[in-house]
Specification:
By secondary structure, this protein is mainly beta. The protein has one domain. It is elongated and about 90 Å long. This is Collagen triple helix repeat-containing protein.
């Protein structure tokens, strides 16, 4: 009986050590090759704008609105938009923050925020105090990057969208691919 248990134990040990472990997580899906509506494949793109936000006293905000067509961009249903604000330059490196973003001032909190439709987008500053008191340095010469991610791109739910550099690497976009517009 003892010999049978040793043989059975040895067999089971060999059986289990020869098995593979569980499959790892799936990688990112590539493009499926389907053409877009206009016959071309819509890829992720990024453009950068340097703007002055305009005071809207009625809404107590500073705002900037632009049609995507101004940059020859057509959005499709369910495309995702991410907007990042250039917070500062630290030792020659740009520091980007994803919107919405709270910003603490001596007068209170203001929020950099955005919204979009299929045709246009808006970037705005919403202070929790009188907008006339917002320092010009917080609304003039502001640099934003608008990142458009097509709806048909399947990214992992673990993707870090708050990190613009990670998103750029995942989509293959480099600094030289970014169109820059000064709109003042």
């Amino acid at each position: 009986m003892k010999k049978t248990c040793i043989i059975l134990g040895t067999f089971l040990t060999l059986l289990f050590t020869a098995c593979e472990g569980p499959a790892g997580p799936p990688g990112f899906n590539g493009f499926d090759g389907q053409d877009g509506v206009d016959g071309s494949i819509f890829e992720a793109l990024v453009f950068e704008i340097d703007i002055d936000l305009a005071l809207n006293s009625a809404n107590n905000t500073f705002e900037f609105r632009e049609d995507f067509s101004a940059h020859n961009i057509q959005l499709y249903n369910n495309d995702a938009i991410f907007v990042y604000r250039l917070e500062e330059v630290d030792n020659g490196l740009d520091v980007w923050r994803q919107l919405p973003q709270p910003f603490l001032t001596d007068l209170g909190v203001l929020y950099y925020n955005f919204d979009f439709t299929q045709y246009d987008y808006s970037i705005y500053v919403e202070p929790d105090y009188n907008a006339n008191s917002v320092a010009p340095s917080l609304v003039n010469n502001q640099v934003f990057r608008v990142f458009i991610l097509p709806a048909d791109v399947n990214f992992s739910t673990k993707m870090e969208f708050s990190n613009m550099n990670t998103l750029m690497k995942a989509t293959g976009i480099t600094e030289k691919d970014i169109q820059q517009f000064k709109i003042n």
